[in-house]
């Protein structure tokens, strides 16, 4: 069985600067098709049409936080099982356990290295499809 | 935020005992009054609630501390049952617990500290910590409780941990943008930069990385100090970790034109450690050595045996550590205050963290240095004796395994040497924290304890061991420089030990005590799980099997599964008709930790067919089986299982 290719990534991140860096890192360096949303609400509106292969999700966001956004995304058609990677500065051991319980495939801690972000996500993707 | 002070309770019990003795000896009312006065003043001056109750749980004494915690005056509670201080849901279990204690002497709360909710006069529930003890005076039993209100403590813990999480998040968010942008620019994604601009951006990049390290280090320090750092101590080969750390730090060293060489190693050596934390320490020592080495020099790493310890040394040929700075080197934010060292980009926390990490792994960190000749930093960890990947084989080995809890390196070495020469597997614990984790990870046949073990008063730790299910019956041998004092401390504490050995330890006496401990019937007795919903049958069976096995009683499938997950059993005695499902469903699940099936003896009120008999080791019908038949069947099944066999059926 050949693994499906990782092509489309939905980034949800409230900090504009970090969003820009994500786009450079994933679109410019990684060659992915990226949709960057500034809030959970925006992501919920756009996600189904964009049909991402993977979601990169911030945790601490005003309004709807990461876990709440994830729960809402899961109710959308086609996004029931889309893999989610949390990208967050909140990485105490119990916090990481909590994200995993929510169904996160992996947790990448902030600050992250944008030079490596694309290859990190590719590895996570390949590991998932290998296992 | 005070914990109930057990020593106060002990001294109260001591004083009460003295009162009794004085009355018996009729040695005059004056002495009695003096003691009574002492007793009163201790009780009344305590901030904690101190409550004494009689055998039925009726409150006899109520101090001012209890008054301010619960809101009742002494007049309102003396003569009432203690259950009024508990929320409704605890009352029935409390009553049952009290009855059980009178019948069996067993209790989940007497002799230990528990945290639960109390009930104030106002009806408000609040968290309390209670230390409960009991003593006899004549034919009467009394209970004494020291109670503290831990509302504030829990609140402060929560606020602190939320604060740290928030601060780390708030600092990291802007840093993510700064570091991310700089990384992209220096990585060339924005096109080539003129040399001068490039060098300036690199400075900014390097310093943002430093700021991130600083935040991470501060968080580490906080976690270590609050005891929240997770350690996963397990046996591992040391050399691959050392080699991995050297490789990972080579590029960093090359920036300083320094190379790293592994000078000597011990290929097979095993240590009990947390691989990530060990790598963190090695990285700290290697990067320090590289930073402070002159250009073109070599940092050498060596791994050697030092008695029962394994020493890893990292040596540099740097400027050495100035005399006046040596004693502060492990302090937080300690950096030798010269412009030269300030420029090295460290956080000033690395060595302090490394020292704490190594100590938590049961080792120690030290250094030797000579000005202008270089420094050698080394850490020592106790050598492990268990195979890293062979957990199953380790379990199958019949060698007894002993935990040596000893703060003094010399004594630890001596004990480990004697025990290992006698073919006994030995693990070392340098302090209470390490001992706790070892006890949580492994099953020991005995434990030796230094009453001056760093981390807690020895007697308190002894009681803690006794309060945990897994180690309640663990044979303990005390090792003490002052055995008489140890004996004195033990008296009245109701904690039993196998022997108290003076230091230096006499080899023969130690081995005799270990032999006695290992053959302690509570340890070598087979364990039977009795799954039966009828309490009377359970009691009868337990009595019948009293001399054959230790019986754990459960009344339904759910509890049976829980027990099976918690400890190994040698046999399961099963009633197929259980309230929450067919008991026979359990048969397929019964495996011991080595994957071997656990024998099942069915003990049923109903007749059963041949099909069932085939699936179990034996099937007995309740009314048709005599006591001696039950014992004989169980002995026979246990003996078939061995080793060691106790005689053929």
* CATH topology term of chain A: Rossmann fold
Number of domains of chain A: 1
Helix/strand order of chain A, N-terminal first:
EHEHEHEHEH
Strand order of the largest sheet of chain A: 2-1-3-4-5
Number of helices of chain B: 22
As a percent range, the share of strand residues of chain B is: 15-25%
Biggest interface: A-B, 21 and 18 residues
Architecture per CATH nomenclature, i.e. the level-2 architecture of the largest domain in chain B: 2-Layer Sandwich
Structural class of chain A: alpha/beta
- Strand count of chain A: 5
What is the CATH top level name of chain A? Alpha Beta
Q: Given this structure, which CATH class of the largest domain in chain B is correct?
A: Alpha Beta
Arithmetic mean pLDDT of chain A:
91
End-to-end gap of chain A: 12 Å
Comma- or semicolon-separated keywords:
heterodimer, A: 131 residues, alpha/beta, Rossmann fold, 5 helices, 5 strands, 18% strand, B: 649 residues, Beta-Lactamase, Heat Shock Protein 90, 5 domains, five-stranded antiparallel beta sheet, five-stranded mixed beta sheet, 21% strand, globular
Secondary-structure blueprint of this entry?
The complex is a heterodimer of chains A (131) and B (649).
Chain A: E1 8-12, H1 16-29, E2 33-37, H2 40-50, E3 54-57, H3 66-74, E4 84-88, H4 93-101, E5 106-109, H5 114-130
Parallel strand pairs in A: 1-2, 1-3, 3-4, 4-5
Chain B: H1 6-25, H2 29-45, E1 49-53, E2 59-62, H3 64-70, H4 74-77, H5 88-104, E3 112-119, E4 125-137, E5 140-149, H6 151-186, H7 195-225, E6 234-237, H8 238-255, E7 259-264, E8 270-273, H9 275-292, E9 298-306, E10 309-315, H10 339-342, H11 350-360, E11 364-370, E12 374-382, H12 391-396, E13 401-405, H13 409-421, E14 425-429, H14 432-441, E15 446-450, H15 458-467, E16 476-480, H16 483-490, E17 499-502, H17 507-518, H18 521-524, E18 527-531, H19 535-544, E19 550-554, H20 557-566, E20 571-574, E21 577-578, E22 581-582, E23 600-604, H21 610-615, E24 618-621, H22 627-641
Parallel strand pairs in B: 7-9, 13-14, 13-15, 15-16, 16-17, 18-19, 18-20, 20-23, 23-24
Antiparallel strand pairs in B: 1-2, 1-5, 3-4, 4-5, 6-8, 9-10, 10-12, 11-12, 21-22
Helix pairs in contact in B: 1-2, 6-7, 7-11, 8-9, 9-11
